[in-house]
Amino acid sequence: MKSCLYAMTCAAATLLAVCAGDAFALTLSGTVLDEQKVPIAGVSVTIPALHRSVVTDEGGRFAFSGLKAGIYKVNIASLGRATETRTVHLSPGDGTLQVLLRVTPLELPGLTVTARPQPTDALTSPLSVTVVEGRQLDRQRGQGVMKTIENNPGVATYTTGAGVAKPVIRGFTSQRVLVITDGVRQEGQQWGDEHGPEIDGLDVDRIEVVRGPNSVLYGSDALGGVVNVVKADLPTASGDRAEFGGTVLFNGFSNNRGRAGALSLHGAGRRVGFRANLSGEKATNVTTPARRLYNSGMAGLNGSGVVGVRGDWGSLAVDFAHFGQKLQIHEDPAEAPDATPYQEVAHDRAHLHADLHLPGLRLEADGSWQRNDRKEFEEKDAPGPVLNLALNTASLDVKGHHQPVGPMFGTVGISVMNQRNRTLAEEPLIPAFDLLNLAGFVYEEIGLKSVTISTGFRFDARSVDVKANPDLGVAAQTRDYSAVTGTAGLVYRAAGPLAFAFNVGRGWRAPTAFELFADGVHEGTVRYEVGDASMKPEVSLNFDMAVRFASHRVQGELSLFQNRISRYIHLSPTGGRDPDSGFDIFENRQADATLVGAEFSVQAQAAKWLVLNAGADFVRGTNDLTDRPLPLIPAHRLKLGARLIRASMGGVKNPYLSVNARVVDAQDRVEVFETPTEGYRLLDVGVGGEVPVGGRRASIDLAVENLFDRAYVDHLSRYKEYALNPGRNVTLKVSVPFGGRR
Question: Are 220 and 341 in contact (CB under 8 A)?
């Protein structure tokens, strides 16, 4: 299947590239100035839709050649200045821009490519979006890619020690939050509580989090939101000057003696660019204020490489990535003090991306293949795994972005996904299956003077061919599902920095093979889990509204939402116990559910040397059938922070001192089998800046998390029944770029 997809994609790319030729090749150029109209060098200018970036020269000039006529969003960003976004209507005759960048200490979000098919900024997105990039990404980078985003409003993590962190958005996690990498669905065994996304946290350029359902663009599983992990664009050369460089990264964590490092190399000639990354990590047992958690270490080795070619016809790139991790699982010492279970996960991915520029149409095609190999072992010297699941996924997504028809422009797309899952060890847990999903969607926008209206519809058809498994009592069968989803949004720009957004969306999620057919011991969750073959798809209806404000001195957002889910799937204890393993028996059930909540965030420049920030979120989930709380709902949170800044100090550029307080409420509104948790207060401090190295700037960030070594239990920790969360943790993060143009 994967070879067929690749062959079709390559053939289509080649044919369309030839057809497109070099006709209608245009140039977009411009100049970037400061508030005194002085040119600024080193400013990053990006057209996200085309994955093209350039840097301004000493005269503040930039240029993109080989463009086709159309509408483009252009992002202009420089550290310490307010990011500007321009919408350019490029037509024959070429286009020019003059952009003024104002100084600001705020970390304002740039364009996002996840909330809708065309790039959009924070003020015009119909859904609430959080973007973590640049120096903010440097400071927040954690042990695992999802730890980087856990303190943003509306976003938390469901953790298993330091090694596994699953995103939680507005009370949804696992199969209800879709994780994608560069626009391609991340497909592993994400249904498991202790199964984290297999993504290298040191090979990330930015992370975009969309809060709210996005099934129209991405299909099943995007009920709560989407996390898009975006890697750096391929470098481009300027004229005949080649580019070669790279970055060395190092992260250190005192709590579990964790260390991680990465070497990234990139280069570009006239039309060809490449990027390669190699990283590794290792950590010992986690330390809490009470004790060290036996058997809670981890190790990993990852690598990736991408090469691409760009011309007036568009671009073509292929990348490969490998993720490998060994993760120890800490069990209840009262029941198994010497237990040493662990898991090994290998995830390989190949991705072909084609972006073709045709008259009146831009065509994007993404073909991918993934293999996820998960093994779980009962003890460190076990001769083989008790659970071994191998999942192969091939997918093809094609999107056509048409030029405006009057005030309307949009995207038409088709999607194909094929999966093959096999159980290879003695414990089946789920049967083998083959899955085929076909989908098509239409998304259109109408842009008026101060109002943007968006709407979209999607149809999905999914067929699951389940193989017979006598151990599970499953007969060979085929399950068919279909769904129609839609979205409608309105954004009203009341004034330059003020906007109001309203959105209603219908999402869906097909039940997993685990939810349908599981019948066995799951070592990772220490439960005996049972599926229900009569499960039907979940369907959600979400309403949300937001008020946003973004200027170079103040930026903030207030969001309110309600999400009602028909046939919500949840695990519930039966009260029985498996006699062989001694584990409690849990079974999958369905009931209607409602989640409501609010999120608030603000950052403001209180003085030239001081930036204040605050954030809060609240979510309440209810099982409508029993009027009981839904499990795994995050506690209410409040975050307060201050950052002292200067332009320079003793040769250090942009030095800062930060103080952040996290105030988390008690979570005693819990399901009957859940343990309530008490509230807690934590204080984090940090210091850092940038040091000139060989004409570039290296960044250094030193921080102390949980400064006073408080004993606490987070409600979304899988260890909360028998272990505290980590205590004080000193972190050091260093990024050293090198190289340049030749």
Answer: no
Residue 48 included in any domain: yes
Q: 551 and 663: one domain?
A: yes
- State the pairing for strand pair 527-530/538-550: unpaired
Q: Are residue 121 and residue 56 in the same domain, yes or no? A: no
Query: Which single residue is written with the structure tokens 């088709």?
Result: 414
The residue among 73, 100, 127 that closes a domain is 100
Query: Three-state SS for 282?
Result: strand
User: Of 28, 146, 167, 249, which is closest to residue 735 (Cα–Cα)?
Assistant: 249
Residue 105 lies in a domain: no
Q: Please give the distance of CA 351 from its chain centroid, rounded to a whole number.
A: 17
Residue 742, amino acid: R
Residues 668 and 521 in one domain: yes
Residues 562 and 662 in one domain: yes
* Residue 355, in any domain of the structure: no
Q: Are 90 and 30 in contact (CB under 8 A)?
A: no
Give the sign of the dihedral formed by CA 127, CA 133, CA 135, CA 139: positive
Amino acid found at 88: V
Six-digit token string for 441: 């969607």
Residue 96 shares a structural domain with residue 121: no
* SS3 of residue 165 by DSSP: strand
Q: Please name the helix (run of DSSP H) or strand (run of DSSP E) that holds residue 151, with its range, or none.
A: none
End-to-end CA distance of the chain: 43
Rounded CA separation 417/28 (Å): 37
- Tally of domains in the chain: 2
Token pair 């070429």 is found at 94
Which CATH number is 62's domain given? Answer: 2.60.40.10
Q: What is the pLDDT of residues 345-361, one digit of tens each?
A: 999 999 999 999 887 78
Determine, yes or no, domain membership for 647.
yes
Instruction: Decide: 653 and 691 in contact? Cβ < 8 Å.
Output: yes
Name the more confident of 273 and 7: 273
Q: Which domain holds residue 332?
A: 114-338+390-741
Domain end position, chosen among 100, 131, 150: 100
pLDDT in tens, 600-656: 999 999 999 999 999 999 999 999 999 999 999 999 999 999 999 998 898 899 999
CB 419 within 8 A of CB 187: yes
User: Do 560 and 526 fall into the same domain?
Assistant: yes
- Tens digit of each residue's pLDDT (9 = 90 or more) over 293-314: 999 999 999 999 999 998 888 8
pTM summary value: 0.89
d(CA 13, CA 413): 16
Q: Are residues 576 and 686 in the same domain?
A: yes
Residues 89 and 128 grouped into a single domain = no
CA distance 600 to 618: 9
Question: What are the phi and psi torsion angles at 471 (to 5°)?
Answer: -60, -30
Farthest CA pair distance, the chain: 78
d(CA 306, CA 353): 11
